[in-house]
Amino acid sequence: MDIRLAYGKNGLVIHLPDQYELTVIEPVFVPGLVDPSAALQQALASPRGALPLKDFVSSGDRVGIVFSDITRPTPHQLILRRYWQSFPTCPSANHPVQRPWHAPPQHRG
Length: 109
Fold this sequence. Notes:
18% of the residues lie in helices and 7% in strands. It is an alpha+beta fold. The protein has a domain at 27-94. The chain has a two-stranded antiparallel ribbon with strand order 1-2. The protein contains two helices and two strands, in the order ββαα.
């Protein structure tokens, strides 16, 4: 049995013996958010199962933010912009962005 995997730009065909019991799981489409910026603002103000960051991060604290690598489509700039807006008293000099092992995220707009 030949199966095409979503891998790379053109996919990858693998051959499996017919005697293998196989279930192919297809992705389920989930529509995007109507207003991602507002959803992020709401999530930062009222996170599920946790206190808002403003309740335990103080003016002089250092904070690390971790993102997935560029293989995961994530709106890094939108997230960071909303995050910094949550802390208006934090000087912009305290916002270094380092990507030591990966290229900068590509805008896919």
